[in-house]
Amino acid sequence: MLRQTDRKFKFDWITILLFLLLVGFGYLNILSASHTGDVIDYFNFSEPYGKQLLFIFLTFGLIIVILAFDAKFYERFSSIIYIVSILSLLGLFIFGKNVNGATSWYGIGGMTLQPSEFAKAATALAVAKYLSDLNTNINNLKDQISIFVIITIPAFLILLQNDAGSTIVYASFFFVLYREGLPKYYLTLGVSVMLIAVSSLKFGALATSIIAVVLVFGFYFLNKKKVSLFQSILALVVTIAMSFGVKAFYDNVLKPHQKNRITIWLSLEKDPAKLEAMKKTFAYNLNESEKAIREGRFTGKGFMEGTRTTGKFVPEQHTDYIFSTVGEEWGFLGSAFVVIVFVLLIIRILHLAEAQKSQFSRVYGYAVASIIFIHFLINTGMVMGLIPTVGIPLPFFSYGGSGLWGFTILLFIFVKLDSNKINEW
Questions:
Q1: Residue 295: which residues within 8 A CB-CB, separation 6 or more?
Q2: Per residue in 204-236, pLDDT tens?
Q3: pTM score
């Protein structure tokens, strides 16, 4: 499994540099958001910035271990890694520790470990292995069901632990499957479901149904040769059923805090005064985050000079809301820098994935890029109020050992795979 190789330094240093920029800049913002006095003791492990420094130090040891293994190890043992990951998620129902309402953690001494952060890499390996073994596009319904099951099992277990944020991340695998030949109608179906859900909540099920009637029959009359009347009627029935079903789900299934987040996001409350009161009560984090970002203006207030950051106005600012620290202290320029680095990292991974000679490596690379993209999109969108509040960290940036290690494993397995392209073996 381990071997010395003359290719050990042939890693993609651009990817590694972007990783280091995110980890380093992230630490500066964690330091600013979590320090509690004038004197900073970097080795005070009772403080978040002290713990994060330790996590970063251990991360470099983890990278060495990941890169030391032969690249073929990750393909050969991907199924075992996936099974171990599933078992670790199942174990939480017996040995798990509840943190902030989610039973997603193992308590180990004075620390906690979140297996869902590592399950993403394990699932990416399993998906890559399954698709590479097929060695063809996934046009077969049986293969589509099988791959959906592989993705759904960890997502479902995480959802049962009351961690909806981590569950949503598994939607990122759709991009991977689409690249590998998943029929386009899945894309149409997914977009349609989201539009119907939002429209039903915002404008009502009846209005959405009327719009659907106009669109479906308009499409039918324009495409009679390609679409049958039966297909059009079936699509209309399903749409109407979904429209009324979404409202029933919202009213009877969602928990109060989930309903409040959606109500605020879509401004479902018609009374402006009540809506503003809801924002102050149920969206305090978001309100303070938006204020912090606005006060940063173009250049920011300066490192450790953000009044809302140093005043601890934004709860959980060093974790899920770390981007608001960037906005206040580094301004638009700092925020743009973070966005650009993430975009460059994602583009670089996709570029490298397309250059792979092995389908396993290509699929895994797309999974890495997609997972990072979804995390980045949801976290920054949440902090700026563009999407509902979801508890999800900013990759390589937010405080936490499990998150940092999980993303490091995810990324550096691909760095290793890329350094050992099949034509070089």
A1: 301, 306, 307, 308, 328
A2: 888 888 888 888 878 777 776 666 777 778 888
A3: 0.89
